[in-house]
Design goal:
This protein is mostly helical and about 130 residues long. The protein is built from seven helices and three strands. It has a domain of about 80 residues: Orthogonal Bundle (Arc Repressor Mutant, subunit A), CATH 1.10.10. About 10% of the residues are buried.
Length: about 130
């Protein structure tokens, strides 16, 4: 039995052939878990303002407050609140509330979210070269 291919660094990018070889090297249970995780992630990121929220964190220095995100994204407060909750529940953001008047809440990306940040750089690079 041959050894499965080494998992390349996320930031290195994969050719279609490398991605296919990696996928095919997974045990059936691991492949199913991986595909379910990807589908769940895409479902979450496909929701209104989810990509915009994570993109804001990808290009920010540290934590962001609700009001900063609301102003930057021009998102409806209820939608932004829902999305921040979902991203927090998914383990992509940490929420810290401070007992102050007025109340202050800051969101910080987790290591899980930071691992997605190269995707935003790739998307911006793509957008520079292509137009829809």
């Amino acid at each position: 039995m041959s050894e499965p291919p080494a998992v390349p660094e996320l930031g290195s990018g994969l050719s279609r052939e490398q991605a296919e070889a990696l996928r095919d090297s997974l045990a059936p249970e691991e492949r199913e878990r991986t595909e379910r995780t990807v589908a769940d992630l895409l479902d979450l990121l496909g929701k209104t303002d989810a990509m915009a929220v994570l993109s804001a964190f990808a290009f920010a220095e540290g934590s962001l407050r609700f009001s900063e995100l609301e102003g930057e994204l021009d998102a409806a407060p209820n939608t932004l609140s829902t999305r921040l909750g979902e991203l927090t529940d998914a383990g992509l953001l940490d929420r810290e509330s401070y007992d102050e008047i007025p109340p202050r809440v800051e969101y910080t990306p987790t290591a899980k979210a930071e691992a997605l940040f190269p995707v935003f750089a790739h998307l911006h690079h793509w957008a520079i070269e292509h137009e829809l």
